[in-house]
Amino acid sequence: MQRMIRKTVLPNGLTIVTEKTPYLRGAVAHLRFGIGSGHEPFRLWGVAHVLEHMVFKGTPQMDQVEFGNEIARLGCSTNASTGFESTTFEIDGPAETILQGLDVFTELLANFHVPAEEFDKEKDVIQEEWKMYRDDPSAWGEDLAFHSLLGNFAHPTIGSPESIASLTRRQVLEFSQAHYTPDNLIVGLVGNVEHEAVVEVLAKHFGDNPRTCAELRLPPLSQVKVRHEEEDSEQEQVFVGFRAPAILRPDIPAFDTAMTIFGGDSWSRLFQRLRNELGLVYSVDGGYSGWPHVGSYMIYAGCQPAETDRVLAEIVNEIDKFKREISPDELVRSKAMLRSSLLMSSDQLGTKVQKLIDDEVLWGEYRPYEKDINDLEAVTVEQALQLVNEVFDDKLMTRVTVGPHQPK
Q: Which InterPro entries does its entry note (predicted)?
């Protein structure tokens, strides 16, 4: 079936990509600014996340209660998230009302203000959010692990209690003026909606905005090899991380194939050895995260504190074995699982719109799922092994633990 994908770039640089889906009743739009926590200077840690919150406080003509009521009246819902390299605002709802919802949401994004009293209140809310993450050892450990592996590019998106408290309203407004600009915004929409209608809504609210994005800078990558965070908990959280290929590397399909074998599912080597054979853990897995300039592969396990050293030793042993051999049967299973994941996600609205925007950011054009599947099918055992040995370098390993036991 021919996919109905279209792209328009407004004169001020705002990019709009849509896929019309006449066979679906729902619709999703993502509005992604190319600014995230990884771009923040040390003194402004947390500003991108604070700004994401403040957008929902409304405009001079429409307060946050009116905004929420209008979105609900249309049967739509909104959300937002801040990452290391981007901030994304999302709206979903019925295809028949999504344009009206997008109109309201875009008006908010183009005209939001930062009332002083709401700013102080929201900083208190975010401090409570930080405490929530801090009280979750696995979430806290993951933040520490990424920060240790990749340096300040991957500092906790939420910031720290000190950095949040020190942020001023003026700093947030200046950050917004510098980076929430049309040329730094990509909008994707998937649903039974005409492309021209989407363009009209975006042009209405952003078309006359001439501002351009200030220079974006990423901090140099750095690494902490070993870190332990003392925590009075029943379980030890164990993270073992490695630098991995950047998302633009053409051999990423080979890396995905290999790492699905190693830590991707209940049949993976890590799960079979540490849980099924040894009974050392309840959960263990590995996951890839990638950006245009760097990638990471992070292994996670949760275990009894007394078993921490043994779990770490077994992870290292499995890595050593994996560097020596991958069987053809494992490769076949991994490809089948990844192919299945691609096919199933291609039917999900949220994944479809995310792929539209990701492809635009990374490649400047849409890449059909068929190409992803063909690249996957072409992977050989030799290619997979080569990447395993490139990434699993003992000298470049980061180890982070959170719990009552400090490993040897």
A: Metalloenz_LuxS/M16, MPP/UQCRC_Complex, Pept_M16_N, Pept_M16_Zn_BS, Peptidase_M16_C
